[in-house]
Amino acid sequence: MKTIILLIPLFIVQNVFAQGVTPKDWGLKEFHIVNEQLGDIYYYVTDEGIDREKPLLFMVIGCGGLPM
User: For residues 24 and 31, what is the distance between their CA atoms, to the nearest angstrom?
Assistant: First the structure.
């Protein structure tokens, strides 16, 4: 019982003081494409070091991270 009494305020405080991180916080610009088959496509680009070759990261977000 004591554990529950201690955990409930911790969960409430966590939700009150939690801060979300946005792409702008990382210095990224957001672009959005709408495709009939794929739906909404969001991608983010940075201007920093744009003249150099860099690795490319593809991230698939969805149900279980599986492509459709």
Answer: 12
List of residues 6+ apart from 28 with CB closer than 8 A: 44, 45, 46
User: Side chain identity at 34, as an amino acid letter?
Assistant: V
What tens-digit pLDDT sequence spans the chain (68 residues)? 777 787 887 777 776 666 777 888 888 888 899 989 888 888 888 877 778 887 877 776 666 655 55
**Helices within the chain (DSSP H only):** 2-17
What is this structure's pTM?
0.46
